[in-house]
């Protein structure tokens, strides 16, 4: 629908005819406010207290991961924990750094989605790198398996134990070590919470180069260990480019002291890269040096309604030309996504656009000059309307509206989970066939008779970061069933491999995708990965049962 | 000097008082042309034909590297080349892919600076990845040492042999394999010349994410193998972020097929990172997938005269705030640099500013809207003049002037070499002490009585990429002498280490810096590097005598 009316509840983009009447450079979209009545639920899940997980788990005891996945067997070469071991650990980290309490342990044994449940009997919370070094050396010498854990916000079961691995939490390592306001180099402990760092930098006029829904809980060390992507990657690039240096404790206790704050350093193999995205299988990241960009003075957010995925692509192509250096997000979701948000979350109480559309695009710009950015965005949006590439849209007029528009996009995962059980896939797919994956999956589930209002699978939704080619495919079901799982897998992986995609775009491998990595990596690549793992962790104590397929 | 006059020969920046008279948004700096009469010499050295090196070398036989550095001894575990080996190589690459002609070989045995001279008897020019695989497998099985070579434009002797290593050139692998005009992913052979790729992308509205003086000769495979930095790193980041995938042949002939075109892929260790900057010591890069950014529609270049390095820093800090997302280069050079350019190159025939200044800053902006960029740049420059941070400046008014301003900056290395011999250092140094290195070195050389018009050392110049903290310190002498070398080294490395810098910012280690890497990397880092080298290249055939210190 191409509307020229300015609605009372929200601002409509002026259509082609109306736009032509406007004076050049007049701020086309700033007359009327977008009046969302609802409070923001941006990153709602992170406000869930840790205790919630534990109490839920106690009330409705989740099955152990080891029982859910019977192919997993405890590696009997790993030693079982003894009182002697405990005494040693207490001597290293003190009593306050050791937890054996069963209820406390649940918080660390169960992931936040409550999909995985480990059986660890011990959490250690070192507060210095030297303590981590002593712990790992002891574990390695004694073949005690460990799982490093940050904020426990992972989606693939990589941060929780499977059997009785000792959990080493970075929770007690949360200091900023230094910040250089000229270069933007931030050095901090691995246990710093992403949002805390971002707030710290905001005061200095800088911003963290990454942002994600879990930022209120996740640790920067975990972000680096999982090579987290998120919402700013389109603009600031991946952690492989923005991380300047790392401090890492190797399984034998060796401390790799590479906390460089230099932007350029060509003195030898770039070892830190091995640990970025290694998910705790090669060592524990204890310190991070990262290059923070300047915080943009002007930020705009627009939400657009689009009638086809071809038009979503057309809008994306144009944004690269016309928004170019100020484009900071190009996010996408389908109608099924917003339907779930409307159904389950306050963020979806009021539909942001007057009528429903098959597709939605959320665009964010960030720049140093508000007038320039407004002019670029307005010109871009007018062009889209004139050429009938988008049919409707709103532009946030203040911070609240900005947050409300983001809340819809960021609320999708939580809304999906309200259905009961979610099959979550995180795929890199070439943009031209990006949405075909969702359509093919819907058709398949329908054909098999499991998708519908009275069926187990209620909705198949697609959303994600078009700018990065990253599709989040969520299949919301009433409950988990092997029947549904077997319809989805390995079909979803085969489909992705056929289109030269990646079966894990940003979530990582963890426990979930370890058996499937061959869909995205060749035997020669996997063989070299295994050699690296065996060289750096010969006893295999680091985060076992995960990441690489078992031999 | 703060001038408000518009000079005939070049445009002067309007000073504070004049600026205040101007209308808002009037294009302050576009009245008069900058009239450089000289042809551009940008990247002049790359127009030197390969034959020049050979004929010079023949006329004035350069000493062999092995004789210059007597500590280097041929590893006797390496086999010497036999007729049988030659027959095998001919069967793999054909007669045209094999060169044994002595004069031909000089071109590959001697680096472009004519600082290093190897003694190889054989150059192989495979044209497919499979041929590279067969060659390496054979060399590994037979313990024949090899040195991979791209465009032979390196500055640290990393790409030329020391003894009789077989040279494997990527010259015959120069095809673009694919380009995706939606994502900007370019896939090409390792032997593609950087400038050829950039011209290819220009036709599609894209740009290579790196640019450097040697772009007319250097190969993209060599760029990746040395983690080349250059002129666009400030804007587009390092190759660790922009390289999407690599195809690499390992010493045992295994082909690592990881030519992904995906922006995000978290399926296992990011193996390609190991090879970025490994300088041919772990394998040969045969194919590169790289993310090309959109080419900017508007580009501006300004050259500023500044009276102190403190003011250079102040101008840099402001540029991050005010030019922000459109800043694409912030280069710096001192008066000694431009004096050499004036003395030796046509690019320096006319001083770009009316009077000499102690420091010069070259600023480039790249954006999608010329009016916006002009406004940002003008406002930034006016502020610098008003606050007396810069004293004078010019802004390029057309492509020729754009090239002429860059020609001064890019001509500095060539101008230095005209003195006779250059001691070149490429350092990462924290910006606050960036120029102190140059001053301390000058004072030291003066104190030792070797610097002056009638002395061996004629000039100590500092230039480089302020935006990246990368100083190029060039010490121009009449001829090489051990006396001077011993005054400079290890002082320069110790100074750098003391200030937590890097002894190789972007040039790499090669032969030159292998013995000095401990100034920038700890024993634990070096030990792990050695383990990785030994694992991937157990026979040590890949580019021996270089990169890592000998044990």
Automatic annotation (TrEMBL), chains A, B:
It comes from the Eukaryota. Keywords: FAD, Flavoprotein, Metal-binding, Mitochondrion, Oxidoreductase, Transit peptide, Zinc. Its EC number is 1.1.99.39. It is found in: Mitochondrion. Its cofactor is FAD. One of its GO terms (molecular function) is D-lactate dehydrogenase (cytochrome) activity. It is an enzyme of class 1 (oxidoreductase). Pfam families: FAD-oxidase_C, FAD_binding_4. It catalyses: (R)-lactate + 2 Fe(III)-[cytochrome c] = 2 Fe(II)-[cytochrome c] + pyruvate + 2 H(+); (R)-malate + A = oxaloacetate + AH2. One of its GO terms (biological process) is malate metabolic process. Gene3D superfamilies: 3.30.465.10, 3.30.70.2190, 3.30.70.2740, Uridine Diphospho-n-acetylenolpyruvylglucosamine Reductase, domain 2, Vanillyl-alcohol Oxidase, Chain A, domain 4. Residues 116-295 form the FAD-binding PCMH-type domain. Its main location: mitochondrion. The keyword Cytoplasm does not apply. PANTHER family: D-2-HYDROXYGLUTARATE DEHYDROGENASE, MITOCHONDRIAL. Belongs to the FAD-binding oxidoreductase/transferase type 4 family. This is D-2-hydroxyglutarate dehydrogenase, mitochondrial. It comes from Dissophora globulifera.
